[in-house]
Amino acid sequence: MKPDGFSFTIEKQFEKARAATYQTPHGVIKTPAFVVVGTQASIKALTPEQAKEAGLQLIFANTYHLYLRPGQEVLANHGGIHKFMHWDRPIMTDSGGFQVFSLGASIEHGVGKIANIFPAEEGGVLKTSARVGSGKSLVEINNEGVSFRSHIDGSKHIFNAEKSIAIQRDIGADMILAFDECTSPLHDKAYTKKSAEITHRWAERSLKYFNQNGPKHGYEQILYGIIQGGAFEDIRTESAQVIASMGFDAIAIGGNLGKTLDDMYQILDWTMPHLPESKPRHLLGIGDVPSIFEGVERGVDTFDCVSPTRNARNGGLLKRFDDDGKRTNKFRINIKNARFTNDTRPIDEDCGCYTCQHYSRGYLRHLFKAKEIQGQTLASIHNIYFMEKLFKDIRQSIHDGNFAELKQEWLGE
Amino acid sequence: MKPDGFSFTIEKQFEKARAATYQTPHGVIKTPAFVVVGTQASIKALTPEQAKEAGLQLIFANTYHLYLRPGQEVLANHGGIHKFMHWDRPIMTDSGGFQVFSLGASIEHGVGKIANIFPAEEGGVLKTSARVGSGKSLVEINNEGVSFRSHIDGSKHIFNAEKSIAIQRDIGADMILAFDECTSPLHDKAYTKKSAEITHRWAERSLKYFNQNGPKHGYEQILYGIIQGGAFEDIRTESAQVIASMGFDAIAIGGNLGKTLDDMYQILDWTMPHLPESKPRHLLGIGDVPSIFEGVERGVDTFDCVSPTRNARNGGLLKRFDDDGKRTNKFRINIKNARFTNDTRPIDEDCGCYTCQHYSRGYLRHLFKAKEIQGQTLASIHNIYFMEKLFKDIRQSIHDGNFAELKQEWLGE
């Protein structure tokens, strides 16, 4: 498998689900895997050592944010993002295309990637200083690219395929993304079709620029093509076929994933059959437990999402069962709840994370009520550990041939 | 030395400066030592492991804050503050008396402990939701104790000597403080004299209650008497004599320490000769480099102050020399300065801390500009390491007989 330093070896399949070893220039990822978002080249509230101790394999940073601050030349001058942020494991960057959505249609329409499930306020869209749903798009899109205003200082900037790849060469993540437009669930079919065609042209230009302009920091990068097409079967199918045919070494499924989780599963069903078996597949921006099982079942290898760590910073701690043995709502508890005030038990008595080994619910609640930063750190550690353990169990179940049982245990009635 | 589990062994003196081993139920402190403030039972932005790795020996928590939130019964129920916060090294708590000052005279007068050097906004006074200098005291003081309103919810509370010690028994710090009133540099002599007399009565009551009501968590605590008296020689001298005569096992120097650093040194000169050689001495609320040298020279063993960690969280990184070899202003740099944007060097190339080993000034500036929590963590680690290294060098210089040279090197023109 090209490029040098990369390989993707499927070790075991359970129907369409795959357990693989994904070699990168910054180490091995065991897939299926979760990618924690570190938007601004920081795993929020954690040192890299803390994230590693929680089991984290790889992270996801944002080209748009890093381009605006600290700027690509600072990243380049530091020898790339790994050295800049002291994270020596694999890193993925998006192309900036999602921010086109986030600052554009998402603001106009007030929606996230899946309209009815993740409102834009709750993890569907990256937080910007612009008000979501305020109706005024901050971007203009045409065939050439995108012009937008910085959410930091209002300055005007232009992104296009070549510029996105050039910035991602400077940033130096292992896995980088072609430039795309991420449409909104509220865009109509005509807009979505036109947008997918633009995304395909940008994909070609991204690939061409990528092939003609090598890496900057002494190791290769892998370029993901991105499939768009919204929730329209014919556009999704065509986009999957077009992107799969272009010679990308890896594929990401992006954009508007419908209005419900069922829509998203349907979109995956339309998309996945067109993807080459041998190439890694990433599902962009999805990280809830049901979607992870449904995605893995359909052959997704990696997932990124802000929600486990963002929820952590708001006191939402991932936990499968409540103390009475019932499944928790959305697989989490709110540690700020008064019932935890004098609770000396850990979040989860069966959890092996640093936080559960050393701290009580009462202490964690105190930290959140007292607005102590350490609360966000300890909660993030727990939620990352939870996700890593979930994926470890998923990988094991694929190896053991009982993925279907594991899924049923987690999601069944 | 009583109580059980405590000993204070002076190993070497250089004139009045002492290098000692201070044994407590939660381990040994090498003195002179710095006590980092962890107001709400959290070393802000750090896990205990990170603080230990930076060399931190002991911390200081606040009775007033912990009494209001999470409440003494939560601390008691968790088996004391060490278990509650997962810190197994020594802890000190104040008596609540400083908050009497902080919420009372400090708000009325808009000043800190040393009026002209540390304005109340900058570390002289603990941050509360009440506006400093707003002129309206939140407390009422009489012979019996203090009534005050919570800065959290406005609820009314009463503190007195017995209650302060009872709360500190529940909290379970190793070193606890007698209840006192900390006067303001702007209080007149008559007020200061009357206040010192009240503090002496409260000291007696604190000691009596302490002796009659043993520890709650299976290990002894040591009670510090607090000397007050403002910047008036006769009142300070009398307070030192009265407190020293009462049979406390350790002594703290508290309260209003004048209007300039020179005033404070003068106050120490009046006070220290009256203190028993064999007992540990703590200087409350002071942590700037010049004061540390002057305090150690006069026989102070331990110092606590919010400033090293509070400055860290605001981007003020401790550093002795600038890159041109000149002494930095107040021994710190502001990492948010634009000149650090593309600076790949560590804060201090000679520093052995985790932050300086792994991160550049450019990255740290980025974290602060991007408001990433990790910046506060990395800066706190550096500043704690800086303080610990400074104290280690001070201890070594006492052992080696060259404390005067070290002081001259740091403070001389």
Write a structural description.
The first copy, chain A, has 413 residues and is α/β, with parallel strands linked by helices. The first copy, chain A, is 39% helix and 17% strand. Chain A folds into two domains: 7-305, TIM Barrel; 317-405, no CATH class. In chain A, the strands form four sheets. An eight-stranded parallel barrel of chain A has the order 4-5-6-10-11-12-13-14, surrounded by six helices. A three-stranded antiparallel β-sheet of chain A has the order 1-2-3. In chain A, strand 13 (281-283), helix 11 (289-297) and strand 14 form a beta-alpha-beta unit. The radius of gyration of chain A is 20 Å and the shape is globular.
Brief overview:
2 copies of one chain form a homodimer. Chain A contains 16 helices and 16 strands. Chain A is α/β, with parallel strands linked by helices and 413 residues long.
Task: Give the CATH topology of the largest domain in chain A.
Answer: TIM Barrel
How many DSSP-defined strands of chain A?
Answer: 16
Gyration radius of chain A, rounded: 20 Å
Query: In the residues of chain A, how many domains can be counted?
Result: 2
Strand content of chain A: 15-25%
Distance between the termini of chain A: 42 Å
What is the SS-derived class of chain A?
Answer: alpha/beta
CATH architecture call of the largest domain in chain A: Alpha-Beta Barrel
Number of helices of chain A: 16
List the helices and strands and how they pair.
The structure is a homodimer of 413-residue chains.
Chain A: E1 7-14, E2 17-24, E3 27-31, E4 33-37, H1 48-53, E5 58-61, H2 63-68, H3 72-77, H4 81-85, E6 91-93, H5 97-103, H6 105-109, E7 139-142, E8 145-149, E9 156-159, H7 161-171, E10 175-177, H8 189-212, E11 222-227, H9 233-245, E12 250-253, H10 261-271, E13 281-283, H11 289-297, E14 302-305, H12 307-313, E15 316-318, E16 332-334, H13 354-358, H14 361-369, H15 373-400, H16 403-411
Parallel strand pairs in A: 4-5, 4-14, 5-6, 6-10, 10-11, 11-12, 12-13, 13-14
Antiparallel strand pairs in A: 1-2, 2-3, 7-8, 8-9, 15-16
